[in-house]
Amino acid sequence: xxxxxxxxxxxxxxxxxxxxxxxxxxxxxxxxxxxxxxxxxxxxxxxxxxxxxxxxxxxxx
Length: 61
Known about the structure:
43% of the residues lie in helices and 13% in strands. By secondary structure, the chain is α+β, with helices and mostly antiparallel strands. It has a two-stranded antiparallel sheet.
């Protein structure tokens, strides 16, 4: 989550490379964060990426 906030707009392969984690693991993490409403995918399938959802009253780090 911290990585998505500090580098918004990355896709799963980019996150996997920068974190040194297998893409399947990133997919599981992303699925959980999306279910919780903490992140969302914005943009097209080819050019979009994941962004943290900032709700009213949240602290931005």
